[in-house]
């Protein structure tokens, strides 16, 4: 008799995921408000609980009273991570496995993907976003308000000047689908915070569950911050590091103001407050991932291991703890839906369509994990490299550095592939060797063989990337505003 263990396991996992705890037949459930704050390029060593030099008292307070996520992973750059968070799918299943979306590139989160805010809206949530989108902007139906958000205030692309709101001379700041010009000289980080506070104050905490997504651009370059935040670091000599840390502290101030607004408006008692970084820090522009190896964009731990915490007065009974269970960016989609009680009343089932698993039970109890493996990134098309994790082991195939961008003065970009022909295999036991200094590949050939088989299974559903796809000469266009209607794909 053939026993289909995988199928049996899948059924058990699906059932367990959505029907345990006696919730299945409950009629009413008070859906919590969910606030998801994502920082941009904040390194592992750039929060106070990893590095006392960093001043993040507001995050620190929430993290201390909540659950610190110490084994939390994302993809190595912005667009893939944001795509994974909002869809529950790995970047290679979204066609986003190579790099971030760069200006004038006709690349975007597939229109067929269902996004977290769309699901939450269906469940009665009001959904708002303020911050950076970076999941495609070359036509109107790719913008946040077409993809599940009731409102959007912020930038569509990957970065921009914090005061002029331009990138390479092109203006990028929006309210919903209209160009928006805030008061001159105002600082983007403050604008996102203010907008978040307005949304919170306008919402009725008793009748309207709120999903608020705040992907700040801080502390991503350009390194710009009001002087008072730099003055917090008189002993930091490296000017880039000093500016960068000032940006981290201005971000922290924003987190504190948002938390305050949630308290004052009566939301906080019923809120789940999530904070994470979208990828590792870029040490070329002030960040630090010490003691991890590598930086943003790379397959080393420094590219993908992300700081994070969850705070919730309603759901967490114990005061503060450190969660060591493995979590990946793709898990936020089912985890947040689980918080909102998805499926427990309607018995819907997402198993098989997404890569994430709900970690909600494990976060609440502060132990364990719903997964024992994950994908750092699999790119069979451009960089031709991959890294996966199974238990304590990590295997990197190909060049761990992936890609080298260089930007010209007018915003023209040249992309130098590091080495798509590199076939090196690296194997690390991260439990014993968290800094990836001891390559075990030649000593453990059986392990490598097994992981290669797993990698081949995981890469099967890759969506191809067409890259680069240049369709626009919009830079330098007469009105110098990001155009949202130019790609033909
Ligand atoms: C953006 O959308 C929200 C929600 O529909 C609305 O309240 C707001 O007025 C809109 N803003 C603009 C500038 O259209
Ligand atoms: C950008 O364009 C200029 C002018 O054509 C050229 O000299 C420069 O090398 C380009 N830079 C990059 C990074 O492609």
Automatic annotation (TrEMBL):
Matches recorded under Gene3D superfamilies: 3.30.1120.10, Alkaline Phosphatase, subunit A
Keywords in alphabetical order: Calcium, Glycoprotein, Hydrolase, Metal-binding, Signal
Cofactor list: Ca(2+)
Residue runs in coiled coils: none
Region forming the signal peptide: 1-22
An example Gene Ontology molecular-function term: sulfuric ester hydrolase activity
Keyword Metal-binding belongs to the record: yes
Superkingdom of the source species: Eukaryota
Domain Sulfatase N-terminal per the UniProt entry, residue ranges: 32-341
The EC number(s) this enzyme carries: 3.1.6.-
Similarity remark: Belongs to the sulfatase family.
Protein name per Swiss-Prot or TrEMBL: ARSI_J
Organism, scientific name: Mytilus coruscus (Sea mussel)
Classification of source organism: Eukaryota, Metazoa, Spiralia, Lophotrochozoa, Mollusca
């Amino acid at each position: 008799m053939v026993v289909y263990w995988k199928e049996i396991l899948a059924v058990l996992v699906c059932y367990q995921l959505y029907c345990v705890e006696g919730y299945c037949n409950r009629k009413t459930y008070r859906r919590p408000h969910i606030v998801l704050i994502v920082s941009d390029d904040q390194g592992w060593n750039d929060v106070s609980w990893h590095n006392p030099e960093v001043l993040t008292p507001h995050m620190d307070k929430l993290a201390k009273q909540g659950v610190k996520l110490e084994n939390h992973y994302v993809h190595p750059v912005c667009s893939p991570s944001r795509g994974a968070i909002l869809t529950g799918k790995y970047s290679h299943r979204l066609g986003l496995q190579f790099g971030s979306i760069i200006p004038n590139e006709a690349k975007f989160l597939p229109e067929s993907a269902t996004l977290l805010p769309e699901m939450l809206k269906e469940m009665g949530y009001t959904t708002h976003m303020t911050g950076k989108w970076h999941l495609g902007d070359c036509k109107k139906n790719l913008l946040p308000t077409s993809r599940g958000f009731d409102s959007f205030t912020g930038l569509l692309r990957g970065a921009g000047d914090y005061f002029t709101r331009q990138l390479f001379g092109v203006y990028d700041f929006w309210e919903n689908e209209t160009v928006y010009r805030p008061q001159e000289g105002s600082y983007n980080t403050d604008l996102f915070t203010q907008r978040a506070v307005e949304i919170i104050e306008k919402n009725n905490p008793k009748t309207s569950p709120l999903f608020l997504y705040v992907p700040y651009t801080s502390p991503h370059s350009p390194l710009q911050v009001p002087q008072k935040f730099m003055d917090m670091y008189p002993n930091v000599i490296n000017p880039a590091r000093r500016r960068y840390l000032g940006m981290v502290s201005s971000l922290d101030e924003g987190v504190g103001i948002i938390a305050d607004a949630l308290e004052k408006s009566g939301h906080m008692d019923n809120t789940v407050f999530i904070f994470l970084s979208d990828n590792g820090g870029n040490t070329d522009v002030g960040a630090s991932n010490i003691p991890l190896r590598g930086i943003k964009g790379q397959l080393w731990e420094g590219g993908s291991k992300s700081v994070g915490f969850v705070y919730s007065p309603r759901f967490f009974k114990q005061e503060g703890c450190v969660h060591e269970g493995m979590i990946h960016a793709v898990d936020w989609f089912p985890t947040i839906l689980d918080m909102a009680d998805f499926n427990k009343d309607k018995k819907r089932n997402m198993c098989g369509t997404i890569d994430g698993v709900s970690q909600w039970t494990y976060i609440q109890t502060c132990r364990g994990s719903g997964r024992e493996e994950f994908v750092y990134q699999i790119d069979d098309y451009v960089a031709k490299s991959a890294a996966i994790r199974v238990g304590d082991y990590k295997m990197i195939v190909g060049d761990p550095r992936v890609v080298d961008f260089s930007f010209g003065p007018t915003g023209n970009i040249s992309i130098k592939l590091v080495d798509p022909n590199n076939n090196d295999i690296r194997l690390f036991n991260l439990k014993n060797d968290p800094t990836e200094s001891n390559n075990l590949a030649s000593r453990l050939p059986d392990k490598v063989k097994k992981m290669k088989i797993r990698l081949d299974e995981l890469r099967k559903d890759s969506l191809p990337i067409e890259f680069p796809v240049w369709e626009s000469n919009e830079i330098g266009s007469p009105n110098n505003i990001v155009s949202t209607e130019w790609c033909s794909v």
